[in-house]
Design brief:
Elements: E1 18-26, E2 32-37, E3 41-48, E4 51-57, E5 60-66, E6 71-74, E7 79-84, E8 91-98, H1 102-108, E9 117-118, H2 126-137, H3 143-160, H4 171-187, H5 194-200, H6 205-216, H7 220-238, H8 243-249, H9 255-266, H10 270-276
Helix pairs in contact: 2-3, 4-6
């Protein structure tokens, strides 16, 4: 009699994670960085020493003191400054990353704009540090290999966080959402409607929109815009192609509409954003 093992992967919604930069630093006394606004998520893990994070959101500045084993998240659009302690300057490792569902997985760890500080549970955050240092020390590895370790980092972050949230997952809901996401990814270069996506999933429009929002955290239309602009930003950063050509490839035949949408999401016009986000080797 033959023997075999068979399993269904429970959730296929790991989408478009991207690493932008990464590294580690042993800071000098009172070394500071900022004030600065990021376009992507930036996470620091404190290996040793101490420091302070100043984060401004909605005109209010919050101050956080951090030490070994803790971490801090910098969210897109927030104004942040961080400074090493005078007597015990910190050493930290960092990752800058993003993805269409990055916010959802960070939320599973209890992290976001209202909760920037990572504190590990009793088991500690050694796994978080280990994955971050692995990425930092393997810059010559393939992009796929490094993104795999980015996923491992996010899993360690969720599993070890003292503010972890329990998520409810439905295989059927995930199936419909993945069908929708696949269709959007394949067709977002052209004009598509929510009704068209719902038809592909054989669902009522209102029910589909509700199900999609519950799973992804935004409306289908917002997801389309985010995907288009994420792809456009990546192409502007990594190629020298004219912005108008990039806009058309990403579903914006009207460059003015593209510029308006891009500035709304990233806070800068496309041309200015491109100047400030050329690939660099340091944070």
């Amino acid at each position: 009699m033959s023997e075999y093992a068979f399993s269904m992967f429970p959730n296929d919604n790991f989408l478009d994670f991207r690493l932008f930069q990464y590294g580690w630093e042993q800071c000098e006394s009172l070394y500071s960085f900022g004030p600065f606004v990021r376009n992507h998520y930036l996470f620091h893990y404190v290996i040793s020493g101490k420091g302070i994070l100043l984060s401004t959101d909605g005109g209010i500045t919050h101050q956080y003191r951090l030490g070994p084993g803790q971490g801090f998240l910098i969210c897109p659009g927030q104004i942040n400054t961080y400074c090493a302690d005078e007597m015990q300057p910190w050493k930290y490792v960092w990752l800058e990353f993003d993805g269409l569902r990055a916010a959802e997985y960070l939320d599973s760890a209890g992290l976001g704009q209202s909760q920037l500080i990572y504190r590990p549970c009793a088991a500690g955050g050694e796994g978080v540090c280990r994955q971050m240092l692995y990425i930092s020390d393997h810059a010559d590895a393939s992009p796929l290999h490094l993104v795999g370790h980015l996923c491992l980092f996010l899993d360690e972050l969720v599993q070890s966080s003292a503010t972890r949230r329990n998520s409810q997952s439905s295989p059927l809901r995930d199936f419909y959402v993945q069908e929708a996401v696949t269709f959007i990814q394949q067709n977002c270069h052209r004009s598509i409607t929510v009704e068209e996506i719902a038809d592909v999933c054989k669902l009522n429009r209102s029910y589909f929109s509700k199900l999609f929002h519950e799973s992804v955290g935004c409306t289908p239309q917002e997801f389309i815009i985010r995907l288009r602009l994420t792809r456009a930003a990546e192409q502007m950063r990594m190629t020298r192609d004219p912005i108008g050509d990039i806009a058309r490839r990403c579903g914006y035949p009207n460059q003015l509409h593209f510029s308006q949408a891009f500035k709304k999401r990233y806070g800068l016009p496309p041309r200015e954003w491109r100047k400030q986000n050329a690939p660099v080797n340091r944070e």
